[in-house]
Specification:
The complex is a heterodimer of chains A (about 140) and B (about 325). Chain A has about 140 residues and is an all-alpha fold. Helices cover about 75% and strands about 0% of the residues of chain A. Chain B has about 325 residues and is mainly alpha-helical. The chains are: A mainly alpha (about 140), B mainly alpha (about 325).
């Protein structure tokens, strides 16, 4: 019985993954990014007392989020249509888009490696992460509302 | 009788042509404004350089660091009127503006007139720069003098008739060139708001993209900063008033922080052409960014100046 339950839940899981809406999925990942970055920025700005452990948890969450960002799965052909601000340039220049995403993930990994011990150290890592957000949105997002 | 009518018509056309020619003539700065130029201070001019966003169009695309000061031009602006190409404004005497006087720069920026007396196209945002203080132009001139000469002319604009007739811009300027502020505030308004008004309406030229345009290409002041369809390609430029669809839920410090970091209050990061603009704003002082934010909180609210998004087609 237990096995059956597990099997069914696994099937259900696989089902959601297979039928998921890539536009909703990538937007959810982006929203999660924003939330984590928002938390980190409080330490950068000194709005919260620096907590190295909390910063590390946030940076690792950002890394995990970045690793989930599978360009092939999240930006399949045709997903430039619909409720999306993804620019057609993503599909015209997939190599460039991949490189931009990779630059972001590398910036996040570098921050995890650096394990910043104080606000200034975090600030030094935060700069390149923020810049890579803007760098990608500059070329690959079209504001629609 | 018919002869008389024909004669009158010819005279009328003649008068019309003469009037049109007269009305479309380039108008330079008056001597009073020229006298206010002053000696110019390159240190102050650097602030104007970034407030004015010169580097975003006149440096190479994606230029960073010192490359932002190599103003060889070449950036293309693809609009419904045709493709405009930003010219070389480096200190090169032949290809750039190295041989210009401060007065030449002031006439270009505030009147849209070249040293040889031609109209510039308003893709160069002189309709905003017209509201600048001559002394700030002199400071900018002094700063530009410290930048390198870069050889090489930028390609010509690619426009189609009738936009190829520069003289016609004289009439456009009569409609849209005005050195008066757009938003009037009552006497005794806080200095911070007025300082922000100067930065936004003048050098910052925010209204050039954030305000919808009429079919003749002038900004619609009744929808000032209400957002607009993007001049290039699809997409929109956001409403930055406090009206519906705008940034009414952003605090003054949210706006100032956005200009410094590029992050919105909910930590989306800015995109499109605003990325370059935000980098320029990050070079300003916190006081300047706060002033811009104070102005944006104080201007009349408007609903979005662009059409609502079409619902996604059902698949």
């Amino acid at each position: 019985m237990r096995k059956l339950v597990i099997a069914i839940s696994m099937l259900a899981l696989a089902g959601t993954a297979a039928f998921a809406d890539p536009i909703a999925d990538r937007q959810a990942l982006m929203k999660e990014r924003g939330k984590i970055v928002a938390g980190l920025s409080k330490f950068v700005k000194g709005e919260e007392t620096y907590d190295a452990a909390a910063v590390m948890t946030a940076l690792k969450a950002l890394e995990a989020n970045g690793e989930k960002f599978d360009v092939e799965a999240l930006f399949p052909a045709g997903s430039d249509q619909g409720d999306t601000e993804a620019s057609p340039k993503i599909w015209e220049d997939k190599a460039g888009f991949n490189a931009a995403e990779d630059k972001y993930v590398q910036a996040v990994k570098a921050a995890v490696q650096a394990a910043p011990a104080d606000a200034d150290a975090l600030k030094a890592q935060f700069g390149p992460i923020g810049a890579s957000c803007g760098g990608c949105h500059q070329a690959y997002r079209v504001k629609k509302s | 009788m018919l002869k008389k009518l024909a004669g009158a018509l010819i005279v009328l056309i003649g008068v019309g042509a003469v009037a049109g020619w007269y009305l479309s003539a380039p108008v330079r700065l008056d001597p009073q404004a020229v006298a206010q130029l002053g000696p110019g201070d390159p240190v102050k001019g650097k602030r104007i350089f970034f407030a004015g966003g010169c580097t975003s169009c006149h440096a190479k695309p994606k230029a960073e660091g010192d490359a932002r000061f190599e103003l060889a031009g070449g950036v293309q602006l693809k609009t419904p009127f045709g493709t405009f190409v930003a010219p070389n404004i480096s200190q090169d005497k032949a290809d750039g503006i190295g041989s210009w006087s401060a007065e030449d720069l002031a006439n270009a920026m505030m009147k849209g007139v070249s040293p040889s007396g031609e109209h510039y196209y308003p893709a160069f945002p002189y309709a905003s720069y017209a509201r600048m203080k001559p002394a700030d132009i002199a400071d900018l001139y002094a700063f530009l003098k410290t930048l390198p000469a870069v050889a090489g002319k930028a390609p010509d604009h690619q426009l189609s008739f009738p936009f190829t007739v520069r003289r016609g811009l004289g009439l456009w300027k009569r409609l849209y060139l005005d050195d008066q502020p757009v938003v009037a505030f009552p006497e005794g308004a806080p200095a911070e708001i007025l300082a922000g008004r100067y930065l936004v309406e003048g050098p910052g030229h925010c209204g050039e993209c954030h305000t919808p345009r009429s079919f003749t290409g002038g900004t619609d002041k009744s929808q000032w900063l209400a957002g607009a369809s993007a001049a290039e390609g699809e997409g929109i430029v956001p409403n930055i008033t406090q009206g519906e669809g705008g940034i009414g839920d952003w605090s003054q410090s949210d706006i100032a922080s956005f200009l410094e970091t590029g992050f919105t209050p909910d930590f989306d990061s800015t995109g499109g052409s605003m990325v370059e603009v935000q980098k320029n704003m990050a070079e300003l002082t916190p006081e300047d960014r706060n002033a811009i934010a104070a102005y944006l909180k104080a201007i009349p609210p408007h609903p979005n100046g662009y059409p609502a998004r079409k619902p996604a087609p059902a698949n």
